[in-house]
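User: quick one
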Amino acid sequence: MTQTDGRVYNFSAGPAVLPEEVLKQAADEMMNYQNSGMSVMEMSHRSKTYDNIIKTAERDLRDLLNIPDNYKVLFLQGGAHLQFSMVPINLLKNGVADYIVTGQWAKKAYVEAQKYGKINKVATSEDKTFSYIPDCSDLPISEDADYVYICENNTIYGTKFHKLPDTKGKILVADMSSCFLSEPVDITKYGLIYAGVQKNVGPAGVQIVIIREDLIREDLPEWCPTMLKYKTHADNDSLYNTPPAYGIYICGLVFKWLKKLGGLEKMKELNEKKAKILYDFLDSSKLFKGTVEKDSRSLMNVPFVTGSEELDKKFIEEAKNAGLVQLKGHRSVGGMRASIYNAMPIEGVKVLVEFMKKFEQENA
Ligand SMILES: *Cc1c(COP(=O)(O)O)cnc(C)c1O
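Assistant: Done. Structure below.
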């Protein structure tokens, strides 16, 4: 069932599938990028050619997300994990922040932030293994909270905030790693958004931060490392030191791909169509069950189980042999998880559902 060129349908949560068109273009440009005589990997990040690559990437990202002029776009390194530290280091002024804990990534961010201030857990869905998004319409937001933190799409559990929390006027910070560019976003509702690109955008190693300018501070504690200040990177257009140059180039190609496709409205439409095929089947299946409450479902990560560990294992093995790979759920939850990011073609989801139907019949 592998595709004609030997590629498989890759349902990995990340690093994850990339658009074939982008991979092909990168391959074409590998040895000699636009007559520069070299690969983008070999190029000085201070060269004119590279400057054009990073500036174009930023411009395309701004177009896609309609990013207002008073927000900076930063291309950083260190993974989402470094943002678990950079966010509190840079944004805590009163030393207080409120976190909504809807999964392991939010929890890790919450624990890390405690090194830097008084961090409150104002809501959680841990009571039901993070299978839903809690009601965030009237949370006990702290008077002096510097920000309210969410993980907008919970990669491991397959939940998504479909309505943002009422932060009662406080700044909203969101980890969007696994839903970034999957649909339009109203940037003005956030003070800071960040995303590791290896989920839905590009190769591992690039971290995109979108931050409102007034939140970029100069008056940080003396001990704060230069590299951990947003200001360092904002003042230097992400070129303070060597950026993850090749990764940013690939992200730029993905931004062009998204624009050509019709932008994020169109992407959302496609993602909804794709996810519906899988969710509709899960809702009708006698064997497979989705593990998430319906109104909290993610368009990107779809966890499901058979109810039998043995059958789960058999399914994952047989799917793999059929060219449907990386369907094993996160080690903390078990079962299966299909990540169906932007670059997963609709055919991939159709093939998966056909395979699930066949498996169901054979194992009835
Ligand atoms: C994958 C992921 C992370 C961790 O990313 P790293 O780049 O490995 O640090 C954090 N948050 C979310 C939502 C993720 O999906």
